[in-house]
Amino acid sequence: MIYSGKLQKYFAGISLSVILVGDLVLTQKTAPVLAETINTSIGEAVTFSCNDSEATIKAKKGPKVVNGTARIYVGYQQLSNNKNPVTIRFNNGIKAWCRNDYETTNDDGTGYGLYWNGSDVLYGIYSSTGTQAGNDFRRFASGRWLPSYGSGGGPKAAVIARINPANGQVNYATFLSSKKSDNGQTNSLLVNHLSWNGANLTVKATSWWTPRNTYTNSMNCSGSSPYQYTAAFTGDLRKMTSVSARTCR
Predict the structure, then answer these.
(1) Which of 13, 183, 200, 249 has its CA 20 to 30 A from that of 243?
(2) What span, in angstroms and rounded, lies between the C-alpha atoms of 238 and 219?
């Protein structure tokens, strides 16, 4: 008789399951469990509140970023007459913080994207449909690349916010929008992807007529709208360092 206790060995990163078949002991190797990581997530905005459990929010299948057992979700809270963006973090399924106070005006604001390096760099992507009286992202965007929604209302502009992942506080933000060619009012822009290289944040977006250049003015474009638009920002969102859009200059 062979006893399994005499065959125990320890392998770094490898799990062994022991199976006794008659007088034979078989060892079966299983792959190590790897920590889940999702750095970038952009998609359809979903509704939830700060009172919802992680299971409830996860089931909505909205944008989320993950590092190990820490997860951050973004979406919006449906109020009686409008929407307010909401962002929440869970650690091991326990709520660490929730923020639904970034924009509390009558603007229909939502959250639809996140980037997180798993450490101290967290950006959120939010939508804005105009300027309303009260607290909105303008209080975080003062002195940044584009400090407000601009003139007009209705088209969805984007807001990029640098967030402290430890407590959810917005450090600073910038608006990102297009401009209508006939009257200069704000036009729609939808962020599709975020990436971070340690110093600059690169934003890929769909921009309707017309995209903005590095100085926030309209680019000169030919062809039909919308345009696939790529812009890089300094990490503090004070400066756009480069921009490109096909058939635009």
Answers:
(1) 183
(2) 19
> E-strand spans in the chain?
15-21, 24-30, 37-38, 40-42, 64-67, 70-78, 83-91, 94-99, 110-116, 122-128, 157-163, 170-176, 178-179, 186-187, 189-196, 200-207, 227-234, 240-245
- The pLDDT confidence band at residue 22, using thresholds 50, 70 and 90, is very low
Per-residue model confidence as pLDDT tens digits over 73-101: 999 999 988 999 999 999 999 999 999 99
CA separation for the pair 123, 137 (Å, rounded): 14
CA distance linking residue 74 with residue 182, whole number of Å: 34
Global pTM value: 0.87
In sequence order, the β-bridge partners of residue 29 are 16
User: Which tokens is 222 given?
Assistant: 């030919």
| Tokens found for residue 46 | 């979903």
Please calculate the CA angle 39-94-159 and round it to the nearest 5 degrees.
40
The mean per-residue pLDDT over the stretch 202-208 comes to 98
Average pLDDT, the chain: 89
- Residue 49 makes CB contacts below 8 A (sequence gap 6+) with 77, 86, 100
